[in-house]
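Record pair follows.
FIRST:
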Amino acid sequence: MMAATCAWQPCEETEQDAFLVQFSNGHVKNAEQLDFKLFKHTDEVNPRKKNRRIVVAESDRLSYVGSNFGSGSLQCNNLCRYFVGVLDKRTMQMKVHNAQLLNMQPVIPGESVATDENTIKADTYRDKVDALIEAFGTTKQKRALTSRRLNQVGNDTLHQAVARAASNVIDQKGVEALQNAVIETEAQTDTAVFLPPCNMEANKPEDVYPFDQLLSPIEFDALKDVGVKMAELTPEDLQKMRDDGSQQTVLRHLELLPKEGAARERLSRCAWYLSFLIKASQQKRLNHKFGMADGCPRIIINKVLKTFTVESFHNGSLRNTVSTSMRMKLASHCLALLLHMGDQTANLTLLHRDLRISDVKMLELAKAMGLTLARQLAYNTEESGSQDEHRMVSLVLPLVRYEQRVDRRKRKKMS
């Protein structure tokens, strides 16, 4: 016997996969009599479509079609990788290629179109298989078919019962009351997408938006080094930051840091994390290098990318985009963090200026979080003797429930 050598050629080099087909209605005796054709998707940029393939086998009697996507494809294609070896008997060398398994199903021309004008729709593939089972199936197959049909009848009965119950509810409460309930539920669902985790049954204000849900203990410990740098800032450093137009919310808390102890360390870490979130909200896209120059821990970067960005494909690469909804989510987390830093009180005006979002959106966000609104006169240091009115928010139990406004846009008049 002669020894055979095996040569590995990845699919990136050959750019060809081997397609292994199996026929659903039996085995092919003379494969040479079949004419095989391979079709691939024209969109080679979209990662979900560029690998789609269709194999067509035609003979004198029947045609077969198989694909690696859709309901008729084999599910093992998505879970496993298959390889096939092609042996050259002349050189006794074997080349290994990537392989794909396809299930070939017979296709009869004209079957998809109903021939009888009185029929509403053509029989599906499942209906045809059921008809074959009724005519030629075994006892076990017929028993399974009967059980499945009984379950289908039970589901139809359940749907009818649900429809009758819904009709009774509509008759009792009225359409207008149900529409108002739906509007309120949708509004709560929309706000729940970008609000921080909330404990509505909390007995203490600080437990409504738990601090551990904003910063886990591991993430809080990772901010130790950057928190120390933030706590070591001198009044001259703070004045320089103010002259450079740094975030007013962060500067306000850095000026009021406790002299020493665990409270100073805690607030300095929170101030750094708040500054990082505000910077992230002002970006259009983020990557894994964002914040590395400032010494941001890797766990914090991963948290921000996972929680506050939307993944999208662009030219075959993955991007982390800060969308409008993600900016509102960042604003809600900043506000919840400010509540913990300021004894459940926060300056809403300074925050919306730092985040560069409108006052109206910031006000709607505070109302969605159930906060109590107030106004306070603040001294403006830039203009001597002038005062600026700031909007303050505080978390008081029970939370305030504001009425949801449903505004309808006016139609523009045609000129």
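SECOND:
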Amino acid sequence: MNLLMIWAPLLPVSSPLEHPALGNQLGSIQKGEKITLRLCSTAEETGELLSKVLNGNKLASEALARVLHQDVSLADPTLDSVEINISQDILGIWVDPIDSTYQYIKGSANVKPNHGIFPCGLQCVTILIGVYDIQTGLPLIGVINQPFVSQDLNTLRWKGQCYWGLSYMGTNIHSLQLPIPKRNGTETSSRLTQNTNSESEVPRCFSAVISTSEKENIKTALSRVCGSSIFPAAGAGYKSLCVVQGLVDIYIFSEDTTFKWDTCAAHAILRSMGGGMVDLKACLERNPDTGLDLPQLLYHAENKDVTGVDRWCNKGGLIAYRSRKQLEMFLSLLIQNLAPADVNT
């Protein structure tokens, strides 16, 4: 909705667009006009409203309106077995309607995965909904929709997958068919680093997914910790999902260019599995001897002394993880392989 509201006022109504098919469809929207999308009482009314921001494309407007008005039945055996009441008064919501927008626009469908991880392409596109406690800032509920998981080569239709997790007042449930790690030390490792030695509680090495724009000093340190099990991928939501799925142990990013809406959903799911998402810089500066807990990302407070969207960026970078024990060992090895100046940056 926000993307459409920003884009619509910029349409050059005084002259036709370069694409003749679209240029002839303008006329119902004026330059500078803002349109608030809403679900109307009928599909016809919603379609008329949508046509204003779809350049008068009646066919697309009517098709989208029909989807919006159809009845949807959501049933999940895991959720049906749990009764939990959360007051709406304490809830805040972060929504990212299209994470990895560039990959969505590019539309690459033939990208090959590396150990199940897609470096780019439509598979990296996610829709993220994260619910957090407005008093503590902790994420409570997360939903990640991955709409482009696999494509039917005959019909060219895509099949998607939805993941969810809830962590609230001692209740931790999620949609994945994985054992829920216990907080007393019995935890799972990733599919890549699964150790067949039943006496070991942590993997012998680590696997990580990173951004293609990650700093060279972090990449160098990671290569010493993870060896060849380092996988670049697009989209903060997708990289977090790789950790949720157990494809890797860690998602690490040292820059401040992810935002609360990028991480809240996955963070909630990871919490429900016994993991979480922490501030990388604060972890590197933390003294383990103090006994202070790991600095989880929080979602209710703005960053100070900045303006615009930077108020909501994850300023210290992040690490997403599925196992507290794995995170502690990973941090120890990472710090050993970073120069002192890098740790204090």
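COMMENT: The longest strand covers residues 139-151.
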